[in-house]
Amino acid sequence: MTDRLSDLIHREATDIAVPPASTSVVALGRRIRRHRRVAVAGGVVGVVAMLTGVGLVASQHDDTRAIEPATPVDVSRAVFSVGTTVYLDGGSVAAPIDDAAIKSLKYTSLGVVVQHGDNPYRFGGGAQRYSLVTWDGRVRDLGLSTTDVEYATDPGKPLLAYVEETPQGPGLAVVDLADGSGSSMSLDLDGDLRFRAIALDGENAYIQDGEGVAVVDLPSATQRSDISARISDLVGDSTAIAGDVAIDYRDESLVVLDSGERLFEVPDPSAALRLSPDGSTALLLTAGGPTSAYDVASGTSTPITDADATFWWTADGDIFTVTDDGTLRACDTGSGECVRERLDLPVLPNSVQSDADFDDVLNLAGQSYES
Description:
The chain has 371 residues and is mostly beta strands. The protein has one domain: Methylamine Dehydrogenase, Chain H (7 Propeller), CATH 2.130.10. The chain has three helices and 32 strands. A six-stranded antiparallel beta sheet has the order 2-3-23-22-21-20, with no helix packed on it. It has a four-stranded antiparallel beta sheet with strand order 7-6-5-32, with no helix packed on it. The radius of gyration is 20 Å and the shape is globular.
């Protein structure tokens, strides 16, 4: 790992907006990019939300909250693809990818990384090729090809990372999307490296390692066994990590990695949590889809009434989906407001009745396939 990559990581960190907070998540809040602002004052409030029959039990926070009036739902942050065309700015910018199919889309500070190939199958589908689509719709081939790997990005940084097999053994590859340069470091990992779950968050990479998580400090290119043991104890083998918070799938709780505080727990075994790419928001999910959104920095919960299980994330913690008739549905997780907007798409999702034709395959950015 080079000094240039270390400088890049520190330079990017200075651009992150700081939301106000007065609880033990002050340090956490400083890491979260947000398009909403919540004002926080003193007092003791315990937040308990009972939504659609599911209890969401939040830890006590030493604050009271004054929430700004709701703003109109902004659909411009929705990014998705139909066939081999990536749509940004809520569908108004189209960027065609020169390949047979798109496999997935992930957010970075420069735009969206697109994984594509001969078919839309993420694993077991042959070569995985990569392009960067910038926010204005320009496409740049990254000249990278992998097979059967999971890759990670951070919406606040211009980086892509994945675990690879090298002649020296397991390695962590990191690509600087700003100039296309790459670096690699050796890892001490056990087992098959294929499909190895990984997350990028700030200056760390988190890699699934047996029943725990291996933590890599990127600036120093060091695998931190001391931190790995602590994080593994907190969250097991979960790599659902962003904004210094993580989901512990063993009990569906949200954990602050620095302090070990559990922000809330989901007591109903039929419910689950989903964390946004920037770590600003967690969704409470039931079989029918999201029922509420939890703002990590402020500790507030907001009911979500017009979303289903197909919704996924914008880069900054709102949710959206695209229906088979080309309707963009989006919800602001801060206000709970939702909108529907019909898009003029040349090909509608899931409209081609052929297993050999991928022109209608829909991908939503931010979509994760972790269990």
